[in-house]
Amino acid sequence: MRLPNDNFSVAENAIGAQSRDSGHDTLALGIAVAAIFLFVGTGSSALSQVIHAIRGTGVLQNPLIALAVLLNVAIILFGWRRYRDMSHAVLHHCAAEAEARSLAETDVLTGFLNRRSFAKIADQMISDHKGSSRFALVMADLDRFKQINDLHGHAAGDAILQETASRIALVLPANALVARLGGDEFALLIPIDVARPERVDQLANALIDAIAAPMFVKETEVSMTVSLGIARSDCEIEPNAQSVTQALLYSADVAMYHAKRHGRNCYFWFEAAMEGELRFRRELEAGIRRGIEQGEFVPYYEQQIDLKTGKLTGFEMLARWKSPTYGIVNPQIFIPIAEDLGVIDVLSEQLIAKALQDAKAWNPQLALAVNISPVQLRDPWFSQKLLKMLVETNFPPQRLEIEITESCLLENVSAVRAMLASLKNQGIRISLDDFGTGYSSLGQLRELPFDSIKIDRSFVMNLTEGKDSATIFKTIAALGEGLGLPMTAEGIESEAVLAELQAYGDFKGQGYLYGQPESGAATLERLAALDLLQTVEPASVARPEPAAEESADRLNRSAARG
C-alpha cells in the first residue's frame, strides 16, 4: 500500500499533546516550582542541620526549618511523579489518537486507504500537479465475488480480499495511491508517464493476470477474475461532481461496468458513450427492485409435447417482466441483473408461487416445470421454502419438475445432492437442463438423482445443418437412453428439425414450432379449448415429512422475528 508520509510519530504527537495539556495542572506545577526555589534557597543550610541532628552529631536549632525542608522534598517528589504520570497518559492518549486516525483513514481488512481518505489525498495529488502531470484512476471490481463469498463463507471472502490486496500491492508502482472503496471494489490512482503512456495498459494487464492466478482458501482452489475501468484526469469532468476524484471514480466505474458487460476479466478506458449504457443499467436495477415490490414479474408458459403422439404433457414456466416503462422484458436481460443485485431468490419465489396457483386449474395430467438458479441451490432453506409453497397452494408435488442447469454442478456438489434428494423424497421430479454444454460428468449424472435431461437448444437447432451436428445429437441421445433418463429437446422451431428428432427415438419437445410462450390467462384459454382444465378440486397435498415440516416452521418463526 502507498500512503502519504504526513503522519506524525507517536513521540511527535506526545510533544504536541504535552504542550497542549500543560495548562491542565497549573496549580500542581506552580507549587512544585515554588518548592524547588524554596529548597534551593534554604536547603543548603537547613538540610545539613537535619542530617547532623539525625546522626546525633549536632543540634537542630529551628524545627520549623527542618519541617519546611521535608515538605519541600515531598512536594518535589509529588511534582515529579505527577509529571511522569502525565507523560505516560499523554503518550497513551496520543497512541490512541494515532490508532483512531489510522482506523478513520484506512480499511481495516486490507490496510489500504478507505474511500474518504482516498478522495481527499487524490484530490490533493492532482491539484499539486495540475498542468504538469496527468493521472489514471483505475476502478477494480472482482467478478462474481458475491457468489463465491456465499458459497465458501464470509471468512473465506475476507481471505480472498486480503490476498487480492497483496497482489495489487505487488504490482503497483511506488508512486501509486490505492484504496479499498468497500466490498470487493478497489481504486488506484497512477501517474501517467508522458514518455510511456502504454505503461497504464501494461499495469492493467498485470493486475488482471495477478488476480487470475489460483487462490487457495482452506486448501480449496478458488478462481477469481477482475474487471477494470480506467479514466484519465485530463478527460471531460462531470460539471456537477463534488471533486475531480469523485468525477474520475464515476467515469472509471462506468468503464468498469462496460468491461463486465463485455465478458469480465478485462479492462476498458472510459468513453463518453458508455455513460448512457450505465445510466440505463441503473434504471433497470431500480425498475427491477420496484417491479418485485409491485408484482410486475409474471410467469409465461411454453408447451411441452410428446413428439411421438403429439400430446400436450405440460408446460415450462418462463419469467417475464411486465414493466410499465419497457413493456414485456426478456429474462435474458433482467435475470443477470437480478442475480447481481441479490434479489433473484425473491423474484423466483414470487414467480413459482404464481405458477403453482395457475397450474392448479390445469388437468392433473399436465406437469409444471420451473427453473432454479444456482443462487437458490446455495440457499440451505430452499427446499423448505418450496415445500411450504406447495402446501400453501395445495399443489401436488408429483406434478412439479424443477430444472437445474449444468453450471449448478460446478458449485458444492454434496450440498446440491442433499437438496435434490430432499426434494425428490417429497415426490418432486428433477431435470438436468441445458445438457451437453460440457459441465457435467458421467459420474455426476449417475450419482445425482435426476429423473430426466433436457438437451440444450444449440444441439437441436443445428440438427439439420450437417452430419457433425447430427452425430453429436445422436451421441447425446444414446447417452441419455443408456442412463435410462427420458429426454426433452429444446428449441424445436421447424418441421425439418421435428422430423429429424422423431427418427432418433422417443422425446418430449418444446419450441416455437408449437407456439410462443403465453401468459397464464392465454394458457387457460388454450387449455379450455382443449378441454384440459381441472374438473374437480384437487385433493389436499400431503404434508411434508416431519423433519421438513419442522424446518419450515423454524424458517417461518425466523422470518417472523426478522
What portion of residues is helical? 40-55%
Average of per-residue pLDDT values: 81
Taken from the alpha-carbon principal axes, the silhouette is: elongated
Oligomer: single chain
Q: Radius of gyration, Cα only, in angstroms?
A: 37 Å
- Low-confidence segments, given as residue ranges, are 1-24, 540-562
Task: Explain the overall architecture.
There is one protein chain. Helix 1 packs across helix 3 (63-105). Helices cover 52% and strands 17% of the residues. The protein has 20 helices and 17 strands. The strands form three sheets. It has an eight-stranded mixed β-barrel with strand order 8-9-11-12-13-14-15-16, surrounded by four helices. The chain has a five-stranded mixed β-sheet with strand order 2-3-1-6-7, with helices on both faces. The model is unreliable at 1-24 and 540-562 (pLDDT under 50). The longest helix has 43 residues, at 63-105. With 562 residues, the protein is of the alpha/beta class. 31% of the residues are buried. The radius of gyration is 37 Å and the shape is elongated.
